[in-house]
Amino acid sequence: xxxxxxxxxxxxxxxxxxxxxxxxxxxxxxxxxxxxxxxxxxxxxxxxxxxxxxxxxxxxxxxxxxxxxxxxxxxxxxxxxxxxxxxxxxxxxxxxxxxxxxxxxxxxxxxxxxxxxxxxxxxxxxxxxxxxxxxxxxxxxxxxxxxxxxxxxxxxxxxxxxxxxxxxxxxxxxxxxxxxxxxxxxxxxxxxxxxxxxxxxxxxxxxxxxxxxxxxxxxxxxxxxxxxxxxxxxxxxxxxxxxxxxxxxxxxxxxxxxxxxxxxxxxxxxxxxxxxxxxxxxxxxxxxxxxxxxxxxxxxxxxxxxxxxxxxxxxxxxxxxx
Length: 322
Description:
Elements: H1 3-14, H2 21-28, E1 31-37, E2 40-45, E3 48-54, E4 72-76, E5 98-101, E6 104-107, E7 110-112, E8 121-132, E9 136-147, E10 150-162, E11 168-179, E12 184-187, E13 196-200, E14 217-220, E15 223-224, E16 229-233, E17 236-241, E18 250-256, E19 266-270, E20 274-278, E21 285-287, E22 293-303, H3 308-319
Antiparallel strand pairs: 1-2, 2-3, 3-4, 5-13, 6-7, 6-12, 8-9, 9-10, 10-11, 11-22, 12-21, 13-20, 14-15, 14-17, 16-19, 17-18, 18-22, 19-20
């Protein structure tokens, strides 16, 4: 046996590993995609759950069938395994983890609603990539927006999840939407501006045993927000609370890339449990047939409360990542 081989055995023994166990242990330290069931795809980092992408039509017993929906993230987990997102909350049955939807979708003079699913649905068409290694996991999916059996838009989702470090985990999201053969008009809710990328947090403020809105801290670029912010231009916002089963406070920030159309977009923030990036906002915007629009975001999941300076530095790092 060579000295190098002997040294390797000693080193592995010091960490309680054998030569046969080492590759498995190293592999388990990285990311892996695995189906949860026929409708949902889960992501783990080592033995810790990270998130679930629901690509099939999801319903809940006791909830009207009109709220059935697909193509969204839930649950999304904090760094200590706590669930930080919420699905089918009693106060807003249509809210669903991290999702992207609009209350006003107009096609050929007719109005549809993907916010509270009405007349339009999202459907997974094919997986493009499902990559995973020790540093990151990448999921790329091609979805379609459908009115009845007719496809009205292509949706391309690319999600990149980075390994947890310094009590933080980064989830980068990129969406490209392309109307098929006719224009599509999108519009947010009047006076509020919700409609676009939305995170519904697991507070259950209006339910027994839920988190009080007074325990929630929302931080925006000019400091801690003392009240909800409707129809407000923001580059980013952070939501922190004492989520169930977590040893302490935790949360997530949503960052908007500078390439975003109408940067910075208008938002709606809610202390009861929502961060809503409202694009295109209260004024309708028409996407022309065959022409694409791309929106990029970062979700920064973190342990503990992050102060304003830390959040500003994290946002600057996002803008300067390329």
